[in-house]
Specification:
Blueprint: H1 15-26, H2 30-37, H3 41-48, H4 56-65, H5 70-79, E1 100-102, E2 108-110
């Protein structure tokens, strides 16, 4: 069986500043935003600094948590990858259920 090849994607330059501005506008800190979205705060920081591109499921959760307007949501979802992170085909075993999972500190993390 051939392994699935993965390649690194570069986010559009406006994505990180858009996320950071939306988070600041919402009055949430980095850690609180990450907690509400079920993400690691370091991962969220990498999204805001343009070092990572979100998966489609992460983008949808962030759009809700940050209450993005229609234009911001469109930019975020256009940049999101359908087969990365939580959405990576090799990540879940066939038949596994999608729901909640427990983080490192026992917090319930949302998954799609």
């Amino acid at each position: 069986m051939d392994p699935i090849s993965r390649k690194r994607h570069t986010p559009p330059p406006e994505l990180g500043p858009l996320l950071a501005a939306a988070r600041q506008r919402s009055g949430l800190g980095l850690r609180e935003t990450a907690r509400r979205a079920g993400l690691n705060h370091q991962y969220l920081q990498r999204l805001e600094t343009g070092q990572r591109v979100p998966s489609m499921s992460v983008a949808k959760v962030l759009a809700e948590v940050l209450a993005l307007d229609e234009a911001e949501r469109a930019v975020l979802l256009a940049a999101a990858l359908p087969d990365a992170g939580r959405d990576y085909p090799g990540r879940r075993r066939p038949g596994s259920k999608i729901g909640t999972r427990t983080g490192a500190h026992g917090h319930q993390l949302a998954t799609e």
